[in-house]
From TrEMBL, chain A:
Protein name per its UniProtKB record: TRAP transporter large permease protein
Entry keywords, A to Z: Cell inner membrane, Cell membrane, Membrane, Transmembrane, Transmembrane helix, Transport
Quaternary structure note: The complex comprises the extracytoplasmic solute receptor protein and the two transmembrane proteins.
The protein's role, per its UniProt record: Part of the tripartite ATP-independent periplasmic (TRAP) transport system.
Transmembrane domains' residue ranges: 39-65, 134-151, 171-194, 206-229, 235-257, 278-296, 316-345, 357-385, 397-421
Cellular compartments annotated: Cell inner membrane
Keyword Nucleotide-binding: no
Species annotation: Chiayiivirga flava
NCBIfam families named in the record: dctM
GO CC field: plasma membrane
Keyword Membrane: yes
Pfam families, per the entry: DctM
Membrane topology: Multi-pass membrane protein
TrEMBL record, chain B:
Keyword Transmembrane: yes
Main location: membrane
Physiological role: Part of the tripartite ATP-independent periplasmic (TRAP) transport system.
Superkingdom field: Bacteria
Quaternary structure, from the entry: The complex comprises the extracytoplasmic solute receptor protein and the two transmembrane proteins.
Protein name: TRAP transporter small permease protein
Cellular localisation: Cell inner membrane
Family, similarity comment: Belongs to the TRAP transporter small permease family.
Location of the Tripartite ATP-independent periplasmic transporters DctQ component domain: 31-160
Annotated membrane topology: Multi-pass membrane protein
Length: 426, 165, 308
């Protein structure tokens, strides 16, 4: 009864347009009152949810992303990618995917990536004769790559939602091979479409031009390397490396590129602040929701339920993936991670699924939801940048859906794709 | 929307929202500085202070709550608005006012319970710092109050507006 | 879904240790006893493994009546209940037997009563064994070896002062966060008893255990005063008596668990080493002197020493 109330009120409030964070809070409050618990619990758990040291890296990486976007680091990374693969069929479309592989390394947010990379690439692609729907579709699906490239704040979120016992370094490493796989698969899809539609091919700009752009993009590449090596070698913690990334991005843009005006800096701070508030507040209120799930013993019930219908880990994983895909069509990624981790991670563990592998599957599955209707923030942002209705993008996006699903299936059912690299690096 | 506010805030509430963003942004910058100080003390002075984690958490909740409050005014919180946009304008406004009322109620509860929690732990020392433990709940309470204020403003604007705003 | 509805009152209890840990098992034993003696009118549902939050948060939940019982380490209680610092002072007790005599006797009674000041009822003390340091970097033989190490301590100023006195850098952190903090090198190590080191799996990252044996810091079993007063008088008495009776059960399980853990850790490749105990005693002395300047602590200290 209490469980039905918790989910029912949450779903109802979401449906009538109450933002996720407030719907989580209100549903928890109603349930707490129904259980005859003091309402201060909801406030206390909201505070506790934001009181974990593992969350500190999130706002700092968001801040870094904003600084890179406004200070020219992202632009130069795109420039490099363009020089590298612009001459392949589908040219700029391939650049788009590759730029996400580079840029996604720092922003960690699919929406930031689609606004940053898509904002630069979509107009460029349209100018060079690509159809708008193709430009939008390749951009939004390429944002999936960035979800998995370290550092991914979604993986940090997953680690926190899992109770903080999972190594962030392992999770970051686990995302790398799936991200590369996604890159190759999406580039292949883009190539096939480009060939069928007969898009033109650009000339290779020459080794010299590639080198010039490499030099220009070097500080940005160094930032990605700094973060990854710093954390991996144990020189910095994830949080410290995020703080260093902020200052580094600030110094590069202000002193090396001389691109960051005072006003731009303020806008970067304001942008990062806005995203931080929204994301952290959902994390905090989801913690109350999660507390109630534990209090009402929902994870145990979910394990029992799945035990009754499925008998091996792949059947369980398949059921969870299908469920998450459905949920993901109408939920954003951060709340999906925060709400589903406490329910499904114990199930996954009970069936012997590695929690690191499960995290990658969860993020990939939820990430696909970001580009599906009815609620797909990345798809919406992409369509808005490309100035086409969402329905028009949807008519031709299916090859990218197929590519993403193929990668998801591989990643879900071949654990080694996620677990090989962390084991090698450990 | 936020950026326009940044350039030329209009009215007391816009200034208040800007102040929230400034406080949250400053907290964000301070988090980076505190963490850098920690790296510096560890590698250069070979002695890292015990106050950095608790202080960072205090700054984190400050950034979160003030930015979340400003986000109520800027309509930044993510949600599921498909059904909403399919409805006639009149029904849309009713639901928008309802959502704002929910946010106002939550803000009010955060204000009151946050203050209670802060008072309850005010005489306890926060480990590693000389600050009261209750201070950790102050941003929650203040941010909740501001959230309620901005949400009530929204209720009024939505109900007054001639069309969808 | 909640477990099959028991007809009587079901108290909720939180513990951050996993199922099977002696403290969790002792509360389960309490539940069985209460259920048997009341014919099912009173029992306890335990939430283990920190499902309901960090220790300090469960204390606040209990204070407000959102949770009925919580089992927390004394270190977590040092700042809100300053009198508990005496149980965490370095080298305060001579032996396990001495510590047990103190908490079973008048000093223990006085500390349990002190929890009433903040809406809690002290039900019992559980053992937590002797605490020592472990870390990812090197064996510690003297306080000098601790220089520069960043170590997790419970959220307690007494522990922070002690670690500083030994020459290391303390950082207050939830116990549940220590594993990933060590793995990501946010910290170099921590200190705890051998059973907690084992069950938290922190031995997978921290391979050096040094027998500093610096403090006991027993566990406290606390109840929400609001929930306690909501029970009929007969059940209140039964609950207090059962909690006291569970101490012996817990200690038996504890002694077995400690021995098993030590064997398992040694077999698992953890490097154990003994330390220069007099040097650690000397380094801890200023911390003791400063704490014992508090007249309440000094009075308790004298009564504890009298039991030595
Ligand atoms: Na990323
Ligand atoms: Na979706």
């Amino acid at each position: 009864m209490a469980v039905a109330l918790l989910f029912g009120v949450f779903a109802l409030l979401l449906l009538v347009g109450v933002p996720v964070a407030f719907a989580l809070f209100a549903a928890s409050l109603v349930t707490v009152l129904f259980l005859d618990l003091p309402s201060i619990v909801v406030v206390l758990q909201t505070a506790a949810g934001a009181g974990s040291v593992s969350l500190i890296a999130i706002p700092l990486f968001i801040f870094t992303g904003e600084l890179m976007l406004r200070g020219g680091i992202s632009e130069r990374l795109i420039g490099l990618a363009s020089a590298l693969v612009g001459h392949v069929r589908g040219g700029l479309g391939q650049v788009n995917v590759l730029a996400n592989l580079f840029f996604g390394g720092v922003s960690g947010s699919a929406i930031a990536d689609v606004s940053a990379v898509g904002g630069a690439m979509i107009p460029q692609m349209v100018k060079r004769g690509f159809d708008r729907d193709f430009a939008v579709n390749v951009s939004v699906s390429a944002a999936l790559v960035a979800l998995l490239v370290p550092p991914s704040h979604n993986l940090i979120l997953y680690s926190a939602a899992a109770g903080g016992g999972l190594s962030i370094a392992d999770l970051f490493a686990a995302g790398v091979v799936p991200a590369l796989l996604m890159t190759v698969t999406l580039m292949l899809a883009g190539w096939l479409i480009a060939r069928r539609r007969g898009y033109a091919v650009e000339a290779f700009p020459g080794v010299r031009a590639v080198l010039v752009r490499l030099v220009g993009a070097a500080p940005g590449l160094a930032l990605v390397a700094l973060i990854f090596v710093g954390i991996r070698a144990g020189i910095f913690t994830a949080v410290e490396s995020a703080a260093i990334a902020v200052v580094y991005a600030l110094l590069v843009t202000a002193l090396v590129y001389r691109a960051l005006a005072w006003r731009e800096f303020l806008h970067a701070v304001a942008g990062a602040t806005r995203t931080t508030g929204v994301i952290l507040f959902v994390i905090a209120t989801a913690s109350t929701f999660g507390w109630l799930l534990a209090y009402l013993e929902v994870p145990a019930a979910a394990v029992d339920l799945l035990r009754a219908v499925a008998h091996d880990r792949y059947a369980v994983l398949a059921m969870i993936v299908v469920f998450l895909l459905v949920l993901g069509t109408f939920m954003d990624l951060a709340p999906l991670i925060l709400i589903c981790t406490p329910i499904f991670l114990p199930v996954a563990r009970a069936f012997g699924i590695d929690p690191i592998h499960f995290g990658v599957v969860l993020i990939l599955t939820g990430g696909i939801g970001l580009i599906t209707p009815p609620v797909g923030s990345v798809l919406f942002v992409g369509a808005a940048i490309g100035r086409i209705p969402v329905t028009q993008a949807l008519r031709t996006i299916w090859p990218f859906y197929l590519a993403a699903l193929a990668v998801l299936l591989l990643v879900a059912f071949v654990p080694a794709l996620s677990l090989w690299l962390p084991a090698v690096l450990r | 929307m936020l950026q326009e506010d940044f350039e030329r805030p209009r009215g007391a509430m816009a200034h208040l929202a800007l102040a929230c963003t400034v406080i949250a942004g400053t907290a964000l910058l301070c988090i980076a500085l505190v963490q850098l100080w920690q790296v510096f003390t560890r590698y250069v002075l070979n002695d890292s202070p015990g106050w950095t984690e608790p202080v960072t958490l205090l700054l984190l909740s400050t950034a979160m709550m003030f930015a979340a409050a400003a986000g109520v005014r800027g309509n930044a919180h993510f949600g599921f608005f498909v059904l909403l946009h399919a409805l006639p304008p009149r029904a849309q406004r009713v639901l928008q006012a309802f959502a704002a009322l929910v946010a106002a109620g939550i803000g009010g509860l955060l204000l009151v319970c946050g203050a209670q929690l802060a008072a309850g732990d005010w005489t306890v020392a926060m480990p590693g710092t000389q600050l009261p433990q209750g201070m950790l709940y102050v941003p929650l309470s203040l941010g909740g109050g501001l959230m309620a204020l901005f949400a009530l403003e929204r209720v009024v604007t939505v109900l007054r507006a001639p069309a969808e705003g | 879904a909640l477990r099959a509805a028991a007809p009587g009152r079901v108290l909720t209890a939180a513990d951050m240790h996993p199922a099977g840990y002696p403290t969790v098992a002792a509360v389960r034993w309490m539940s069985d006893e209460l259920e048997r003696q009341t014919g099912g009118a009173l029992s306890i549902r335990t939430y283990h493994a920190g499902q309901l939050g960090r220790e300090s948060d469960t204390v606040t939940l209990a204070r407000h009546g959102a949770l009925d019982i919580t089992r927390v380490n004394m270190g977590t209680l040092n700042n809100p209940f300053p009198i508990t610092r005496i149980l965490c002072l370095p080298y305060e007790f001579d032996s396990v037997a001495h510590m047990r005599r103190a908490v079973d006797g008048a000093p223990g009674r006085e500390i349990l009563d002190a929890f009433a000041a903040r809406d809690l009822v002290g039900l019992a003390f559980y053992d937590a064994g002797l605490r020592s340091f472990y870390n990812v970097r090197r064996p510690i033989h003297t306080p000098a070896d601790m220089h520069g190490l960043k170590l997790r301590v419970p959220p307690s100023d007494i522990f922070m002062a002690m670690v500083r006195a030994f020459g290391a850098n303390p950082t207050p952190l939830g116990f549940g966060e220590a594993f990933s903090a060590m793995q990501t090198h946010m910290i170099d190590g921590a200190e705890n008893n051998i059973r907690g080191f084992d069950s938290s799996r922190q031995f997978e990252v921290a391979r050096y255990w040094s027998n500093t044996q610096h403090a006991f810091s027993p566990e406290a079993l606390l109840m929400s005063r609001r929930s306690f007063e909501g029970l009929p008088a007969s059940q209140r008495e039964l609950l207090l008596a059962t909690a006291q009776a569970s101490v012996a059960v817990m200690r038996r399980l504890w002694d077995e668990a400690e021995a098993t853990s030590r064997e398992r850790m040694a077999a698992g490749g953890v490097a154990f080493n003994d330390v220069d105990l007099p040097a650690f005693h000397a380094a801890a002395e200023p911390v003791r002197t400063r704490a014992l300047a508090d007249p309440d602590l000094l009075r308790l200290h004298r009564r504890i020493r009298a039991l030595a």
